Amino acid sequence: MQRYFIDQSKTAGKVFLPEEVAHHLVTVLRAAVGTKFELVTADHQAYLAELISITPGNVIAKLIENLGKDSELPVKTILACGLPKTKEKPELIVQKGTELGADKIVFFEAERSISHWNSQKQPRKIARLQKIADAAAEQSHRNVKPQIEYCPSLKQLLANYPATIRLVAWEESAKEGESSRLFQALAKLQTGDSILAIFGPEGGLSSAEVTIMEENGIIPVGFGPRILRTETAPLYFLATVSFVTELSKNN
Amino acid sequence: MQRYFIDQSKTAGKVFLPEEVAHHLVTVLRAAVGTKFELVTADHQAYLAELISITPGNVIAKLIENLGKDSELPVKTILACGLPKTKEKPELIVQKGTELGADKIVFFEAERSISHWNSQKQPRKIARLQKIADAAAEQSHRNVKPQIEYCPSLKQLLANYPATIRLVAWEESAKEGESSRLFQALAKLQTGDSILAIFGPEGGLSSAEVTIMEENGIIPVGFGPRILRTETAPLYFLATVSFVTELSKNN
Fold first, then answer.
1. Could you tell me if B202 and B95 lie in one domain?
2. Which domain holds residue A57?
3. Which residues form the Ribosomal RNA small subunit methyltransferase E methyltransferase domain (chains A, B) (predicted)?
4. If we measure between CA atoms, which residue out of A84, A221, A223 comes closest to residue B99?
């Protein structure tokens, strides 16, 4: 069923739909009065809704019931990705990362980032990625739209993104035969915890960057023996967070 | 380090490089005599190699040592994907699925597949996808190039793709609150086993298709509470197979 986010909290049973939602529902999907769909309010509650009135400039829906379902990961999951070279990779990370439950996706300037987002470009780039996240959140039936952010340096990343557990994907870690730190870290997670995972850009992170991270208590983890591209590793990570916190807890 | 696959098995220390490999190494990468790279022979062994002679039509390398590393998943993992609508989705599944360790990727005509590959189109499509798989296998340092195949019906899929464990990604399964069947299935896997996972196209599988699968002993599993796109679910699945068989066994 079609799902939309609205900025309003539930105040009464009737909702005046925002222009964008009304346009998509009535003009794009040609929905008529009586059509049912889902609305997620600003307080992250998902409702079954029904279209009750369509007049020019005023499209009104009625909230039928709170679906009482929360599709969010039980832990707040933050991806921090070294700015990739191409435009397509951040878009893929954002779209798939949203489907897979990320709470926040931060692109930071890493030592080997070839692309740089200057202060002029950066708000436009983030706005575009946020749109992709919003659409993916509707499509994947999230209760929360992930926040897309930009961070100009590793230093600021480490200072501004605290979390219960902080990891860095480190290929050398896999080469050293390390194969259980990710498992051990995820096994510790409890509902309400937060977890930050840092990923390098195409050229990888430098040893200096990883050393700084280790000095800040960030755990280097391997993701298995194959080399994953910069846009694939975050998806691997999110799948394992879901697997451990959503699929393996209530056997 | 650059890795290439060759069709020869190791017979002696010297290898005449196939034209395509020689072209990429010498013309594209401008490698000179003395350059080191990796070669995977037809018996799936990875060697450190060195370029020892470049003459027109003859590029020769020396195998220095068997790297003794196997980056393959300990279980043979087969993806069976309902043929998606767009060209991009099979390409993404093949590229990312290869990085994540798939042994075989089969595209089958599902009831709700909108695209159809007729017998004229089909070999060309598969050849193109196989090229993407081969390149991704080199880049991700696999020892095996996954096989890309086409299957014209669910019936033939069920008959021709046996496996130790066979699963189907079934959204309704998640809606029913089922959340541990994937975990339970993966926990049973032993080295050398095979696992087949079936995924619907964009419109999903029909209840009839899932019923036929269940009658054939295929287990419906949910992948968490969010709705994953047809190209995202196989990646989630492969990440969990890696996590369980490669990262959680030797704590």
1. yes
2. 3-66
3. 72-241
4. A223
- Whether residues B182 and A100 touch (CB distance < 8 A) is answered with no
Chain A interface, mutation test: which of B243, B244, B249, B250, most A Cβ atoms within 10 Å? B243
Q: Which residues of B are less than 8 Å from A248 in CB distance?
A: 180, 183
Tell me: do B81 and B62 sit in the same domain: no
Taking CB atoms and an 8 Å limit, are A180 and B225 in contact across chains? Answer: no
**Do B60 and B106 belong to one domain?**
no
Does residue B153 contact residue B161 with C-beta atoms inside 8 Å? no
Contact A71 B226 (CB under 8 A): yes
Task: Please report, for the domain that includes residue B47, its CATH number.
Answer: 2.40.240.20
Q: How is residue B246 written in tokens?
A: 């490669």
Cα–Cα distances (Å) from A70 to A59, A142, B8, B26, B74, in that order, read 27, 8, 54, 55, 35
Query: Which member of A223, A224, A248 has the closest CB to residue B180?
Result: A248
- Please answer yes or no on whether B99 and A232 come within 8 Å at the CB atom: yes
CATH of the domain at B134: 3.40.1280.10
Query: Chain B residues with CB inside 8 Å of A140's CB?
Result: 226-229
Distance from CA of B53 to the nearest CA of A (A): 29
Residues B61 and B91 reside in one and the same domain: no
The rounded distance, in Å, linking the Cα atoms of B37 and B59 is 14
Point out the domain boundary residue: A25, A47, A66: A66
- A&B contacts, CB < 8 Å: 121
Q: Same domain for A167 and A56? A: no
Does residue B71 belong to any structural domain of this protein? no
Boundary of a domain, candidates B66, B98, B117: B66
Query: Do B190 and B208 fall within a single domain?
Result: yes
Q: Report the alpha-carbon distance of residue B40 to residue B137 in Å, rounded.
A: 10
Q: What is the pLDDT along chain B (251 residues), one digit of tens a residue?
A: 899 999 988 767 889 999 999 999 999 999 999 999 999 999 999 999 999 999 988 999 999 999 988 899 999 999 999 999 999 999 999 999 999 999 999 999 999 999 899 888 899 999 999 999 999 999 999 999 999 999 999 999 999 999 999 999 998 776 666 778 999 999 999 999 999 999 999 999 999 999 999 999 999 999 999 999 999 999 999 999 999 999 986 53
Residues B58 and B85 in one domain: no
The answer to whether B101 contacts A226, with C-beta atoms less than 8 Å apart, is yes
Query: Which one of B232, B246, B250 has the shortest CB-CB distance to A224?
Result: B246
Is the Cβ pair A240, B235 closer than 8 Å? no
| Torsion angle in degrees (nearest 10) through CA of A129, A130, A136, A141 | 160
A89 and A59: one domain?
no
Q: What angle do CA B93, A238, B89 make, to 5 degrees?
A: 15
